[in-house]
Description:
The chain contains 13 helices and 22 strands. By secondary structure, it is α/β, with parallel strands linked by helices. The mean pLDDT is 95. Flavin mononucleotide binds at residues 257-262, 309-313, 341-346, 372.
Amino acid sequence: MRIRPGIYWVGVRDPGLEVFDVVIPTEYGTTYNSYIVEADEPVLIDGVKKEFQDEWFAKIAARIDLADLKHLIVNHTEPDHSGSIGELLRRAPHIVVHGTRPALQFLSEQVNMDFNKHIVGENDVLDLGNRKLRFIMAPFLHWPDTMWTYLEGEKVLFTCDGFGSHFAFPEGKILASQQEVDFTGAVEYYFDKIMGPFKPKVRDALAKLEGLELEMIATGHGPILDVEVDRYIQLYHAWSFQAQAAEQKRVVIAYASAYGHTKRMAELIAEGASRNPKVEVVLLDAANTSPQEVEAAVSSFDALIVGSPTINADAVYPVWRVLEAVSAITAKGKAAAVFGNYGWSGEAAALLEERLEKMRLVVGHPAVKVRFSLTEQDEERCRQMGETVAASVTP
Ligand SMILES: Cc1cc2nc3c(=O)[nH]c(=O)nc-3n(C[C@H](O)[C@H](O)[C@H](O)COP(=O)(O)O)c2cc1C
Ligand SMILES: [Fe+2]
Ligand SMILES: [Fe+2]
Protein backbone atom coordinates (compact mmCIF):
# COMPACT_ATOMS: atom_id res chain seq x y z
CA MET A 1 0.00 0.00 0.00
CA ARG A 2 1.49 3.29 -1.12
CA ILE A 3 1.85 5.99 1.53
CA ARG A 4 4.11 8.46 -0.31
CA PRO A 5 5.80 8.40 -3.71
CA GLY A 6 7.99 5.33 -3.66
CA ILE A 7 7.15 4.38 -0.07
CA TYR A 8 5.00 1.36 0.57
CA TRP A 9 3.51 -0.11 3.72
CA VAL A 10 4.09 -3.86 3.80
CA GLY A 11 3.00 -4.39 7.41
CA VAL A 12 0.38 -6.68 8.86
CA ARG A 13 -2.68 -6.29 11.05
CA ASP A 14 -3.16 -8.24 14.27
CA PRO A 15 -6.67 -7.16 15.27
CA GLY A 16 -7.13 -10.14 17.60
CA LEU A 17 -4.20 -9.36 19.88
CA GLU A 18 -5.51 -9.05 23.40
CA VAL A 19 -2.38 -8.88 25.51
CA PHE A 20 0.95 -7.43 24.42
CA ASP A 21 4.28 -8.42 26.02
CA VAL A 22 2.36 -10.67 28.46
CA VAL A 23 1.28 -7.75 30.66
CA ILE A 24 -0.32 -5.03 28.53
CA PRO A 25 -3.98 -5.47 27.62
CA THR A 26 -4.62 -4.18 24.10
CA GLU A 27 -8.24 -3.35 23.57
CA TYR A 28 -7.91 -2.53 19.89
CA GLY A 29 -5.45 -5.14 18.68
CA THR A 30 -2.39 -3.84 16.90
CA THR A 31 -0.43 -3.75 13.67
CA TYR A 32 3.23 -4.39 12.87
CA ASN A 33 4.25 -1.82 10.30
CA SER A 34 7.02 -2.45 7.83
CA TYR A 35 7.99 -0.32 4.86
CA ILE A 36 9.67 -0.51 1.50
CA VAL A 37 11.45 2.63 0.34
CA GLU A 38 12.11 2.48 -3.40
CA ALA A 39 15.40 3.97 -4.52
CA ASP A 40 18.41 3.10 -6.64
CA GLU A 41 19.21 0.84 -3.71
CA PRO A 42 15.84 -0.26 -2.32
CA VAL A 43 15.38 -0.56 1.41
CA LEU A 44 13.12 -2.45 3.76
CA ILE A 45 12.43 -0.82 7.12
CA ASP A 46 11.60 -3.07 10.11
CA GLY A 47 9.94 -6.45 10.08
CA VAL A 48 6.90 -8.06 11.66
CA LYS A 49 6.07 -10.67 14.28
CA LYS A 50 7.10 -14.17 13.23
CA GLU A 51 3.61 -15.63 13.02
CA PHE A 52 2.75 -13.07 10.34
CA GLN A 53 5.84 -13.56 8.20
CA ASP A 54 4.12 -15.38 5.30
CA GLU A 55 1.75 -12.47 4.82
CA TRP A 56 4.72 -10.10 5.06
CA PHE A 57 6.75 -11.95 2.43
CA ALA A 58 3.74 -11.98 0.11
CA LYS A 59 3.34 -8.22 0.47
CA ILE A 60 7.02 -7.59 -0.12
CA ALA A 61 6.99 -9.87 -3.18
CA ALA A 62 4.11 -7.90 -4.66
CA ARG A 63 6.40 -4.85 -4.71
CA ILE A 64 9.93 -6.11 -5.16
CA ASP A 65 12.00 -9.20 -5.83
CA LEU A 66 13.97 -10.03 -2.68
CA ALA A 67 17.06 -10.35 -4.87
CA ASP A 68 16.78 -6.62 -5.65
CA LEU A 69 16.44 -5.55 -2.04
CA LYS A 70 19.75 -4.10 -0.87
CA HIS A 71 19.22 -2.96 2.69
CA LEU A 72 17.24 -3.64 5.83
CA ILE A 73 16.94 -1.04 8.57
CA VAL A 74 16.23 -2.33 12.07
CA ASN A 75 15.08 0.56 14.24
CA HIS A 76 14.37 -1.86 17.10
CA THR A 77 14.83 -5.59 17.56
CA GLU A 78 12.01 -6.60 19.87
CA PRO A 79 10.53 -9.75 18.28
CA ASP A 80 7.24 -8.06 17.37
CA HIS A 81 9.36 -6.31 14.71
CA SER A 82 12.31 -8.65 14.28
CA GLY A 83 10.70 -12.10 14.51
CA SER A 84 10.50 -12.38 10.73
CA ILE A 85 14.02 -11.20 9.99
CA GLY A 86 15.77 -14.56 10.42
CA GLU A 87 13.71 -15.99 7.59
CA LEU A 88 14.30 -12.87 5.47
CA LEU A 89 18.06 -13.26 5.85
CA ARG A 90 17.86 -16.96 4.99
CA ARG A 91 15.99 -16.12 1.79
CA ALA A 92 18.10 -13.07 0.95
CA PRO A 93 21.52 -13.41 2.62
CA HIS A 94 22.98 -10.60 0.52
CA ILE A 95 20.97 -7.94 2.39
CA VAL A 96 22.92 -5.48 4.52
CA VAL A 97 21.33 -4.87 7.91
CA HIS A 98 21.73 -1.39 9.42
CA GLY A 99 21.06 -0.70 13.08
CA THR A 100 22.60 0.52 16.31
CA ARG A 101 25.33 -1.59 17.90
CA PRO A 102 22.93 -3.11 20.46
CA ALA A 103 20.31 -3.72 17.76
CA LEU A 104 22.72 -5.74 15.65
CA GLN A 105 23.95 -7.60 18.69
CA PHE A 106 20.39 -8.46 19.79
CA LEU A 107 19.50 -9.48 16.26
CA SER A 108 22.56 -11.74 16.04
CA GLU A 109 21.45 -13.49 19.19
CA GLN A 110 17.95 -13.87 17.80
CA VAL A 111 18.76 -15.25 14.37
CA ASN A 112 21.88 -17.22 15.32
CA MET A 113 23.43 -16.91 11.88
CA ASP A 114 25.94 -14.70 10.14
CA PHE A 115 24.71 -11.74 8.16
CA ASN A 116 25.98 -8.47 6.70
CA LYS A 117 25.92 -5.89 9.46
CA HIS A 118 26.47 -2.19 9.38
CA ILE A 119 26.49 -0.34 12.70
CA VAL A 120 25.11 3.19 12.46
CA GLY A 121 25.52 6.17 14.79
CA GLU A 122 24.08 9.64 15.32
CA ASN A 123 23.40 11.45 12.05
CA ASP A 124 25.01 8.78 9.90
CA VAL A 125 23.66 8.83 6.36
CA LEU A 126 22.89 5.85 4.17
CA ASP A 127 23.12 6.88 0.55
CA LEU A 128 20.61 5.01 -1.60
CA GLY A 129 21.67 6.78 -4.79
CA ASN A 130 18.71 9.02 -5.48
CA ARG A 131 17.57 9.12 -1.84
CA LYS A 132 19.20 9.41 1.55
CA LEU A 133 18.37 7.96 4.94
CA ARG A 134 19.66 9.60 8.09
CA PHE A 135 19.76 7.90 11.47
CA ILE A 136 18.73 9.58 14.70
CA MET A 137 19.74 7.81 17.86
CA ALA A 138 16.81 7.35 20.26
CA PRO A 139 18.12 4.91 22.86
CA PHE A 140 15.85 3.36 25.49
CA LEU A 141 12.64 4.02 23.63
CA HIS A 142 12.08 1.50 25.03
CA TRP A 143 15.09 -0.80 24.60
CA PRO A 144 18.79 0.04 24.51
CA ASP A 145 18.78 -0.64 20.76
CA THR A 146 16.23 1.89 19.50
CA MET A 147 16.79 4.54 16.83
CA TRP A 148 14.73 6.53 14.32
CA THR A 149 15.31 6.76 10.57
CA TYR A 150 14.68 9.93 8.55
CA LEU A 151 14.10 9.89 4.83
CA GLU A 152 15.52 13.16 3.51
CA GLY A 153 13.44 14.92 0.88
CA GLU A 154 10.24 13.06 1.70
CA LYS A 155 10.44 14.33 5.29
CA VAL A 156 9.29 11.02 6.67
CA LEU A 157 10.51 9.72 10.02
CA PHE A 158 10.38 5.98 10.69
CA THR A 159 10.13 5.58 14.46
CA CYS A 160 9.12 1.95 15.09
CA ASP A 161 7.66 1.98 18.65
CA GLY A 162 8.00 5.77 19.00
CA PHE A 163 4.62 7.51 18.52
CA GLY A 164 3.07 4.09 17.98
CA SER A 165 -0.28 2.80 19.16
CA HIS A 166 -1.80 -0.60 19.60
CA PHE A 167 -4.65 0.17 17.28
CA ALA A 168 -5.53 -2.17 14.44
CA PHE A 169 -6.75 0.28 11.84
CA PRO A 170 -9.43 -1.06 9.47
CA GLU A 171 -8.20 -3.07 6.48
CA GLY A 172 -6.83 -0.72 3.86
CA LYS A 173 -6.99 2.40 6.04
CA ILE A 174 -3.47 2.74 7.28
CA LEU A 175 -3.20 6.52 7.60
CA ALA A 176 -4.20 8.65 10.57
CA SER A 177 -6.20 10.86 8.19
CA GLN A 178 -8.34 7.86 7.21
CA GLN A 179 -9.39 6.89 10.73
CA GLU A 180 -13.03 7.38 11.60
CA VAL A 181 -12.43 7.25 15.33
CA ASP A 182 -10.01 9.33 17.37
CA PHE A 183 -7.16 7.02 18.35
CA THR A 184 -5.26 9.60 20.42
CA GLY A 185 -6.21 7.62 23.52
CA ALA A 186 -4.42 4.57 22.10
CA VAL A 187 -1.30 6.65 21.42
CA GLU A 188 -1.39 7.93 25.01
CA TYR A 189 -1.98 4.45 26.45
CA TYR A 190 0.95 3.17 24.43
CA PHE A 191 3.12 6.03 25.64
CA ASP A 192 2.17 5.34 29.26
CA LYS A 193 2.84 1.63 29.03
CA ILE A 194 5.89 1.52 26.82
CA MET A 195 7.61 4.90 27.01
CA GLY A 196 6.40 5.96 30.48
CA PRO A 197 9.42 4.56 32.36
CA PHE A 198 11.79 6.41 30.00
CA LYS A 199 10.50 9.98 30.04
CA PRO A 200 13.96 11.61 30.14
CA LYS A 201 14.93 9.50 27.11
CA VAL A 202 11.81 10.63 25.29
CA ARG A 203 12.77 14.24 25.96
CA ASP A 204 16.29 13.63 24.63
CA ALA A 205 14.94 12.11 21.43
CA LEU A 206 12.34 14.86 20.94
CA ALA A 207 15.07 17.49 21.24
CA LYS A 208 16.69 15.96 18.16
CA LEU A 209 13.55 16.58 16.12
CA GLU A 210 13.75 20.33 16.61
CA GLY A 211 14.48 21.99 13.29
CA LEU A 212 13.79 18.78 11.40
CA GLU A 213 11.20 19.16 8.65
CA LEU A 214 8.60 16.51 9.23
CA GLU A 215 5.54 15.68 7.19
CA MET A 216 4.91 12.14 8.28
CA ILE A 217 5.76 9.82 11.14
CA ALA A 218 5.73 6.22 9.98
CA THR A 219 5.37 4.24 13.20
CA GLY A 220 5.82 0.55 13.89
CA HIS A 221 2.35 0.12 15.40
CA GLY A 222 -1.01 1.64 14.54
CA PRO A 223 -1.93 4.33 12.02
CA ILE A 224 0.78 6.17 10.13
CA LEU A 225 0.78 9.80 11.25
CA ASP A 226 0.28 11.70 8.02
CA VAL A 227 -1.59 14.63 9.58
CA GLU A 228 -1.19 16.63 12.80
CA VAL A 229 2.43 15.55 13.12
CA ASP A 230 3.12 18.58 15.31
CA ARG A 231 0.25 17.72 17.58
CA TYR A 232 1.65 14.25 18.25
CA ILE A 233 5.07 15.69 18.96
CA GLN A 234 3.50 18.22 21.33
CA LEU A 235 1.62 15.43 23.08
CA TYR A 236 4.84 13.44 23.50
CA HIS A 237 6.38 16.60 24.92
CA ALA A 238 3.55 17.11 27.38
CA TRP A 239 3.45 13.49 28.49
CA SER A 240 7.20 13.22 28.91
CA PHE A 241 7.37 16.38 31.02
CA GLN A 242 4.39 15.41 33.17
CA ALA A 243 4.94 15.33 36.92
CA GLN A 244 8.45 16.65 36.44
CA ALA A 245 7.82 19.99 38.06
CA ALA A 246 6.07 18.60 41.12
CA GLU A 247 7.32 20.46 44.16
CA GLN A 248 5.78 18.08 46.61
CA LYS A 249 7.04 14.61 47.26
CA ARG A 250 4.56 11.81 46.86
CA VAL A 251 4.20 9.20 49.57
CA VAL A 252 1.89 6.40 48.50
CA ILE A 253 0.44 4.23 51.25
CA ALA A 254 -1.25 1.13 49.87
CA TYR A 255 -2.91 -1.49 52.04
CA ALA A 256 -5.64 -4.07 52.32
CA SER A 257 -7.45 -5.07 55.44
CA ALA A 258 -10.02 -7.72 56.30
CA TYR A 259 -11.02 -6.59 59.79
CA GLY A 260 -9.87 -2.99 59.81
CA HIS A 261 -6.66 -3.24 61.85
CA THR A 262 -4.27 -2.79 58.94
CA LYS A 263 -6.55 -0.06 57.64
CA ARG A 264 -6.28 1.79 60.97
CA MET A 265 -2.50 1.45 60.81
CA ALA A 266 -2.49 2.89 57.28
CA GLU A 267 -4.53 5.88 58.40
CA LEU A 268 -2.19 6.59 61.28
CA ILE A 269 0.86 6.34 59.01
CA ALA A 270 -0.87 8.74 56.60
CA GLU A 271 -1.54 11.09 59.51
CA GLY A 272 2.13 11.05 60.47
CA ALA A 273 3.32 11.62 56.90
CA SER A 274 0.80 14.43 56.38
CA ARG A 275 2.42 16.46 59.14
CA ASN A 276 5.15 17.13 56.60
CA PRO A 277 4.03 20.09 54.45
CA LYS A 278 6.31 19.06 51.59
CA VAL A 279 4.54 15.75 51.20
CA GLU A 280 1.46 14.73 49.30
CA VAL A 281 0.01 11.59 50.82
CA VAL A 282 -1.94 9.12 48.71
CA LEU A 283 -3.84 6.52 50.71
CA LEU A 284 -4.95 3.52 48.70
CA ASP A 285 -7.26 0.74 49.80
CA ALA A 286 -5.97 -1.80 47.32
CA ALA A 287 -8.83 -4.27 47.68
CA ASN A 288 -11.43 -1.66 46.77
CA THR A 289 -9.61 0.07 43.95
CA SER A 290 -9.65 -0.78 40.26
CA PRO A 291 -6.42 -2.03 38.65
CA GLN A 292 -6.33 1.19 36.62
CA GLU A 293 -6.47 3.34 39.76
CA VAL A 294 -3.81 1.23 41.45
CA GLU A 295 -1.58 1.65 38.42
CA ALA A 296 -2.14 5.39 38.31
CA ALA A 297 -1.41 5.74 42.02
CA VAL A 298 1.90 3.89 41.86
CA SER A 299 3.01 5.23 38.48
CA SER A 300 5.16 7.75 40.30
CA PHE A 301 6.08 8.14 43.94
CA ASP A 302 8.97 9.14 46.13
CA ALA A 303 8.17 6.64 48.85
CA LEU A 304 5.95 3.59 48.86
CA ILE A 305 4.56 2.18 52.09
CA VAL A 306 2.64 -1.08 51.78
CA GLY A 307 0.64 -2.90 54.40
CA SER A 308 -1.09 -6.23 54.57
CA PRO A 309 -2.60 -8.46 57.21
CA THR A 310 -1.14 -11.93 57.34
CA ILE A 311 -3.67 -14.36 55.97
CA ASN A 312 -2.63 -17.99 55.68
CA ALA A 313 1.01 -17.12 56.23
CA ASP A 314 1.08 -14.65 53.34
CA ALA A 315 0.30 -11.07 52.38
CA VAL A 316 -3.02 -10.74 50.58
CA TYR A 317 -3.46 -10.64 46.82
CA PRO A 318 -4.62 -6.99 46.46
CA VAL A 319 -1.35 -5.90 48.05
CA TRP A 320 0.74 -8.16 45.81
CA ARG A 321 -1.16 -6.64 42.91
CA VAL A 322 0.03 -3.20 43.99
CA LEU A 323 3.63 -4.39 43.80
CA GLU A 324 2.98 -5.91 40.39
CA ALA A 325 1.85 -2.50 39.20
CA VAL A 326 5.05 -0.85 40.38
CA SER A 327 7.62 -0.45 37.62
CA ALA A 328 10.88 -1.92 38.84
CA ILE A 329 12.64 0.41 36.42
CA THR A 330 11.35 3.76 37.68
CA ALA A 331 10.99 2.66 41.30
CA LYS A 332 14.56 1.42 41.63
CA GLY A 333 16.29 3.21 44.51
CA LYS A 334 13.08 4.77 45.89
CA ALA A 335 12.22 4.59 49.58
CA ALA A 336 9.89 1.87 50.79
CA ALA A 337 8.51 0.54 54.06
CA VAL A 338 6.12 -2.15 55.18
CA PHE A 339 3.49 -2.63 57.88
CA GLY A 340 0.75 -5.03 58.80
CA ASN A 341 -1.49 -6.55 61.37
CA TYR A 342 -1.40 -10.21 62.31
CA GLY A 343 -2.63 -12.80 64.74
CA TRP A 344 0.14 -15.31 65.42
CA SER A 345 2.86 -15.83 62.81
CA GLY A 346 2.81 -12.52 60.87
CA GLU A 347 4.75 -13.49 57.73
CA ALA A 348 3.27 -10.79 55.48
CA ALA A 349 5.65 -7.97 56.39
CA ALA A 350 8.85 -9.92 55.77
CA LEU A 351 7.55 -11.28 52.46
CA LEU A 352 6.64 -7.80 51.24
CA GLU A 353 10.00 -6.43 52.31
CA GLU A 354 11.79 -9.20 50.48
CA ARG A 355 9.89 -8.48 47.29
CA LEU A 356 10.52 -4.72 47.52
CA GLU A 357 14.21 -5.33 48.03
CA LYS A 358 14.33 -7.66 45.05
CA MET A 359 12.82 -4.82 43.01
CA ARG A 360 15.68 -2.75 44.38
CA LEU A 361 13.63 -0.28 46.35
CA VAL A 362 15.33 0.82 49.55
CA VAL A 363 13.54 -0.48 52.62
CA GLY A 364 14.98 2.03 55.03
CA HIS A 365 12.49 1.82 57.90
CA PRO A 366 11.88 -1.31 59.96
CA ALA A 367 8.50 -2.93 59.41
CA VAL A 368 5.76 -1.95 61.82
CA LYS A 369 3.88 -5.06 62.86
CA VAL A 370 0.97 -5.08 65.27
CA ARG A 371 -0.74 -8.12 66.75
CA PHE A 372 -4.55 -7.74 66.64
CA SER A 373 -5.82 -4.56 68.35
CA LEU A 374 -3.66 -1.43 68.40
CA THR A 375 -2.49 -0.05 71.73
CA GLU A 376 -1.77 3.65 72.10
CA GLN A 377 1.87 2.81 71.76
CA ASP A 378 1.21 0.99 68.47
CA GLU A 379 -0.68 4.00 67.20
CA GLU A 380 2.26 6.22 67.94
CA ARG A 381 4.65 3.80 66.19
CA CYS A 382 2.50 4.08 63.09
CA ARG A 383 2.40 7.89 63.10
CA GLN A 384 6.11 7.90 63.71
CA MET A 385 6.75 5.67 60.72
CA GLY A 386 4.79 8.02 58.47
CA GLU A 387 6.73 10.98 59.75
CA THR A 388 10.13 9.32 59.40
CA VAL A 389 9.53 8.05 55.88
CA ALA A 390 8.18 11.45 54.81
CA ALA A 391 11.24 13.16 56.27
CA SER A 392 13.52 10.75 54.41
CA VAL A 393 12.22 11.96 51.03
CA THR A 394 12.08 15.69 51.79
CA PRO A 395 15.47 17.31 51.90
C1 LIG B 1 -8.50 -16.69 57.04
C2 LIG B 1 -7.47 -16.08 57.97
C3 LIG B 1 -6.19 -16.58 58.00
C4 LIG B 1 -5.23 -16.01 58.83
N1 LIG B 1 -3.96 -16.50 58.80
C5 LIG B 1 -3.01 -15.93 59.59
C6 LIG B 1 -1.68 -16.39 59.57
O1 LIG B 1 -1.31 -17.29 58.83
N2 LIG B 1 -0.76 -15.81 60.38
C7 LIG B 1 -1.10 -14.76 61.21
O2 LIG B 1 -0.24 -14.22 61.89
N3 LIG B 1 -2.38 -14.31 61.27
C8 LIG B 1 -3.34 -14.87 60.50
N4 LIG B 1 -4.61 -14.41 60.53
C9 LIG B 1 -4.98 -13.36 61.51
C10 LIG B 1 -5.02 -11.97 60.88
O3 LIG B 1 -3.75 -11.59 60.43
C11 LIG B 1 -5.51 -11.02 61.94
O4 LIG B 1 -6.89 -11.28 62.15
C12 LIG B 1 -5.34 -9.55 61.60
O5 LIG B 1 -5.75 -8.76 62.69
C13 LIG B 1 -6.14 -9.12 60.36
O6 LIG B 1 -5.79 -7.79 60.05
P1 LIG B 1 -6.86 -6.83 59.39
O7 LIG B 1 -7.82 -6.38 60.46
O8 LIG B 1 -6.08 -5.69 58.84
O9 LIG B 1 -7.54 -7.61 58.32
C14 LIG B 1 -5.59 -14.97 59.71
C15 LIG B 1 -6.90 -14.47 59.67
C16 LIG B 1 -7.83 -15.01 58.82
C17 LIG B 1 -9.21 -14.43 58.81
FE1 LIG C 1 9.22 -2.61 21.47
FE1 LIG D 1 6.83 -2.79 19.16
